[in-house]
Amino acid sequence: MSELSPFKITIKEHHVDSYGHINNATYLQIYEEARWEIITPRGFGFKEIHQKKMGPVILEVNIKFLKEIRLRETITIVSKLTSYKGKIATMLQQMVKEDGSIANEATFVFGLFDMKERRLIEPTPEWKSALGME
What we know:
Layout: E1 2-3, E2 7-10, H1 24-39, H2 46-52, E3 54-65, E4 74-85, E5 88-97, E6 102-114, E7 119-121, H3 125-130
Antiparallel strand pairs: 1-4, 2-4, 3-6, 4-5, 5-6, 6-7
GO molecular function: fatty acyl-CoA hydrolase activity
Protein name: Thioesterase
Organism: Bdellovibrio bacteriovorus
């Protein structure tokens, strides 16, 4: 569907494990940080989520570890919204090394969650805009 804003990050000491590469759980934190950097500047940040009482919720994640990412490497997270059918969306995020190789990729299945009704809802125009759909 659409490629979203790339997010660049340098891997720091708190990201790595005793082997000197990114800890497996940290991949999800970095991907989440990149997603916040997509939606916040487009008017769907933490403040707006709590005002509107609706926000994104992850339903499923599939992650592939392809190449080691080590301390002090700079990587770019590339995010692509690949589908949005009904209430369910899919996003591919990849960690790209400086040489252009893909070190990690994850597919996230998610939706827009109504915090009052406690259920998934159809995407609103504001949510679509935050995802670069409009």
